[in-house]
Structures are given as structure tokens and as C-alpha cells.
Write a structure and sequence with these properties.
This protein has 538 residues and is an alpha/beta fold. Helix content is 45%, strand content 11%.
Length: 538
């Protein structure tokens, strides 16, 4: 069996293998999307394909969506060449249930894959065609939080962003520059309204996206690349809206074991690939079944019936905000960020297995969510914080079939600690005058910084997950010596007091010295991180 348009015509073979096929005409819905794009998406990796692509697939199956998605890649063009084109833009969804069973489904919702590459005339021209389409109602995004970043913690534009500012729209390279350039194309052509929907896992993601777009446009206007009227149009949310969203679906990187199982079933060419930019991706996508997508209902050019998608809720901004705060600042993401990096230090590869076999780590995870996070959460009503958290600990976190790794959970942690820890810390300071009563959250922060040393609990080195602050933090910790607690003096102070990182000065919050003490205990010698966790979880 081949995962291609021709290959899926062999319905008997796929049925025998237990793989569901699209119940709609893939070629027809793809062609309609190419002729009149309605929904485009930036960032076409794993989470997009199984979550957003899966939602679109469900809407197509239900007959409430009549065309596929336009898939736009701004960062890793190998994804288009190695995962989309050879498989006719099809994907194979593998849902991993907690009881060990799986659901296989071919996704035909991804109509075409376009490289947002100004140096490629054909793809650049196609991108302009997409944005000129008056049928285009929304552009969504899963480009990770750093995809929106224009400047470092020092406020200075990154060199590639400065280059985009200097070179103008026709030579754009970064996601935000490409998007702004395409919006200018739309403005010059018809000024048709559009919704720009960030679905990235960060607080007030719509505002983050809006700020980056408006900043890029403003810099270009100063240099004469775009007009003042364009800025006015961009700033009018009745014309260009930036809805907030909350997104949640645990999507580990593709499993080699699942690839082998699929090939044993008879599906060819399922091996994952690692691209030149270190993207780990495969023709299939594996993930858990539970998923939540809460979207602010603000679409100035109309929208598909998104609320009919599995796990999708349409709401007002206040409800989205409360849902996002529930998940990102209290129930899920803080648990991952507090315990995942520690798991790497402890030498534990798989997240679920760690929680299922290490009582101290499970207790720490539960303390972050139930004892320290939930008390500061306001109920969004459409989702119950307690029920959401219960599902995490009874079904989602313990699901060893997901194969999620601690190292993946440590990826880009510096970009999220402000939201995942800082918001709850600020809430404690506001309510009690100090956050010093917290234990698991500061222990998690200490554990993350301990992880940044790149030395495990037995003194062996390991490679850190990608994170833009790795060089800066490792430089700050360069004089810290594993096995010598006295080597820690004031190295953590610039990090823990940096409000751009944590959204609050942790010393003023009553936690700076506490975290220093925990970190000092964690570097005492072999086994000291495990002993420190045990001490505070007794």
C-alpha cells in the first residue's frame, strides 16, 4: 500500500489493514482549495497535520467544509519536499488510546503545500495568489511561540529580522515578514477582510501575532516599503482580526515503532525523517485522542463551521482567555515544564513511564496542578478546570502508548516559563503579598535551570533540546561546577530577576533565594537531583 492518491484507490487493502480512508473526494476538495482558497495555515508540521488537518478532515467527512487547507511552510522547506510532495499531501493519523489500541485514518484535508520562500519565484507567486483570493477567510498558525519573536530579551531585533526590515516585503524570509508582505498584497489587491488565527500554545496568542505584524509593517512604512494607509487597515480589527485561541493536544514526535508497525501492515515508506533543520517528521502523525481548541469568534470575512469540529469551541475573548489560563498557566503546561526537564536530568526518557514509576515525580506533577495552579484559576465555564485536570492525570499523562519524551517537553522552555509559571506566581503575590508558600513550581524552575547545565544526575553529559536561550543561560552557568555546591554564588540572579523571562522578578516575589537553594542542592553530586525532589515531596 502506498500513501498516495493512486495508492488509496486500493480500498480493500487499506480496509484489511484497519486503516480508514477519506469518505470524500480528495482530489476534488483539493482542487477547489487551489482554485478558491478559504483556509490557509502557516507551520505545517506534526501538530498541524493531526490536529488542524484532522479537524478539517472531520468537517469534510461531515459535509460542512467543501475544500481542503492551503498548507504554508515558512521555516523548514524539507517538510514540503520530503513529507508532502511524495505523498500527494496525504497524511496518516495514528490515534494512540490509553488502553493500547490505535485508530488509523488517512487525512485528505491538506490540499497543497506552498513554500513561503521569496527566493523561489513559483512558490512566492502562488503565495500571492492565495492571499489575493477573496474567498480566503482565515489564516491560522502553528509556528511555535518563537515564530512570532522579532527581538531578543535585550529588545534588539534579531539579525534576520533586521535584514527583513531592511530588505522589504519582496525579500521577506521570516514568518512574520512573509505574512506582513502577503497582507500588503491583499491590501493592494482588494482589501478584503481576513482573520489571522494563532493556534500556538502561548498566552494571548492573537495579541502576540498582531504586535509582530504591526511592528513589521511599521518598520517597513518608515522605510517607504508600505503606505500609511496599509497600517491603518491592519490596525482595524473589523478588517484584519487576530482572535485569541487555546489549543491542546499532546503530539509526540513520530515513533519509529509505529512506523515499523505500519510497514508490517503493508504501508510503504513510513520511516520518519530528520530534516536539515532538525525537524523530526514522518508521513504519519501519532497523538492522543483528547483535544481542545477554543477560538474567539471574530471573523470579519466569515468562517467555516468550525464549532462542528471535534474538540472545537467558539467563544468570546474572555472565555478563551480563561480557558487558556486554565491550561497554560495551571493545569497542563506548567506540569510539563516543571517535570519534563527534571526527567532528562534523572535519565528518564519517557514522560508517562516516569510519572507511572516514580512516586516523587508524580507527586510533584500533581502538586503543580492541583495544589498550586488550580487555586488561582477562574472557571471558564465551557470547560471544567477540575475535570480537565482529572482527565490529564487519569488518562492523558499516564498514557505510555504516546511515547512522549522528557526531552521534547524541555524544548523552548525559556519561551514559556513566563506564562507557565510567572502568571501563577504573580497571582500568589497579588493575593498573599508573596509567592513564598509555593514549593513545586520553584522546584520546577530550579530543575529546569539544573537541566540547562547539560549534566545528568550521574554526572554524564547530554544534548539539550532546542531553545533560543541555551547559549545565554549556559554562559551564565559556566562557572557552576557539578559536585561543588559552593560554586553557585550569584550566577542565577540575572536569570531569576529577568522580568522578560518570568514576567516578574522572582526575588521580589519571594522565590529567588528559594530557587537558588534548591538548585544548590541539585548540584551537590551524583543522585542529588533525585534526592532534592524526594526531600521536597516528602
Amino acid at each position: 500500500m502506498k500513501l498516495t492518491l493512486e495508492g488509496i484507490k486500493d480500498t480493500a487493502a487499506f480496509q484489511k489493514a484497519g486503516i480508514l480512508l477519506p469518505g470524500y473526494d480528495v482530489a476534488a476538495v483539493s482542487e477547489k482549495a487551489k482554485q478558491a482558497p478559504r483556509w490557509a495555515h502557516f507551520g505545517i508540521g506534526n501538530i498541524f497535520r493531526i490536529f488542524i488537518g484532522g479537524i478539517a478532515d472531520g468537517l469534510l467527512e461531515a459535509g460542512v467544509l467543501d475544500r481542503g487547507l492551503t498548507c504554508i511552510e515558512t521555516f523548514d522547506y524539507d517538510v514540503v519536499d520530503k513529507i508532502y510532495t511524495p505523498y500527494d499531501n496525504l497524511g496518516l493519523s495514528v490515534i494512540l488510546h490509553a488502553d493500547g489500541t490505535r485508530t488509523y485514518k488517512v487525512l485528505g484535508s491538506m490540499a497543497e503545500a506552498v513554500k513561503a520562500q521569496s527566493s523561489d519565484p513559483a512558490h512566492w507567486a502562488r503565495l500571492k495568489e492565495v492571499f489575493r483570493s477573496k474567498d480566503l477567510q482565515l489564516v491560522s498558525f502553528t509556528i511555535t511561540e518563537k515564530g512570532y519573536a522579532l527581538a531578543g530579551s535585550d529588545g534588539i531585533y534579531f539579525p534576520f529580522i533586521q535584514s527583513d526590515i531592511d530588505n522589504g516585503p519582496e525579500k521577506a524570509t521570516s514568518a512574520m515578514a512573509v505574512l506582513t508582505a502577503m497582507l500588503y498584497v491583499r491590501y493592494q489587491d482588494s482589501r478584503t477582510p481576513i482573520a489571522l488565527v494563532s493556534m500556538d500554545n502561548c498566552s494571548h496568542n492573537g495579541d502576540l501575532l498582531r504586535h509582530s505584524v504591526l511592528t513589521m509593517a511599521d518598520e517597513w512604512q518608515k522605510k517607504g516599503y508600505v503606505t500609511e494607509d496599509f497600517l491603518t487597515w491592519l490596525g482595524d480589527e473589523t478588517q484584519v482580526s487576530f482572535p485569541w485561541t487555546m489549543i491542546d493536544k499532546i503530539t509526540p514526535r513520530p515513533s519509529d515503532a509505529i512506523a515499523a508497525d505500519l510497514e508490517a501492515l503493508g504501508v510503504e515508506d513510513m520511516a520518519p525523517v530528520i530534516t536539515s533543520k532538525r525537524t523530526y517528521i514522518a508521513p504519519f502523525i501519532n497523538a492522543e485522542q483528547p483535544q481542545y481548541l477554543v477560538i474567539e469568534d471574530r471573523f470579519p470575512n466569515g468562517r467555516p463551521e468550525l464549532e462542528k469540529g471535534f474538540g472545537v469551541y467558539l467563544a468570546d475573548r474572555a472565555t478563551v482567555n480563561l480557558s487558556e489560563r486554565m491550561k497554560v498557566t495551571a493545569c497542563l503546561n506548567p506540569v510539563h515544564s516543571a517535570t519534563g526537564p527534571v526527567g532528562v536530568v534523572l535519565g528518564e526518557e519517557l514522560y508517562a513511564k516516569m510519572l507511572n514509576t516514580d512516586p516523587d515525580m508524580m507527586k510533584m506533577a500533581r502538586m503543580v496542578a492541583y495544589d498550586e495552579g488550580l487555586p488561582m484559576v477562574e472557571d471558564p465555564k465551557i470547560l471544567s478546570p477540575k475535570a480537565f485536570t482529572d482527565e490529564l492525570f487519569t488518562d492523558r499523562f499516564p498514557n505510555e502508548y504516546l511515547g512522549d519524551t522528557n526531552l521534547r517537553l524541555a524544548t523552548d522552555t525559556s519561551q514559556g516559563v513566563g506564562v507557565r509559571f510567572g502568571e501563577t506566581i504573580k497571582a500568589y503575590v497579588k493575593k498573599y503579598g508573596s509567592a513564598e508558600r509555593l514549593t513545586a513550581i520553584p522546584l520546577g524552575i530550579a530543575g529546569w535551570l539544573r537541566y540547562m547545565l547539560g549534566i545528568d544526575d550521574m554526572g554524564n553529559t547530554y544534548e539539550l533540546a532546542p531553545d533560543p536561550m541555551v547559549p545565554e543561560i549556559q554562559a551564565a552557568l559556566s562557572s557552576v561546577v557539578f559536585g561543588d555546591p559552593s560554586s553557585l554564588t550569584d550566577q542565577l540572579h540575572p536569570i531569576l530577576s529577568n522580568e522578560k523571562v518570568f514576567f516578574i522578578d522572582l526575588y521580589k516575589a519571594g522565590l529567588g533565594e528559594k530557587i537558588e537553594g534548591m538548585f544548590r542542592e541539585m548540584i551537590a553530586g551524583k543522585g542529588s537531583t533525585k534526592a532534592t525532589i524526594h526531600k521536597y515531596m516528602m
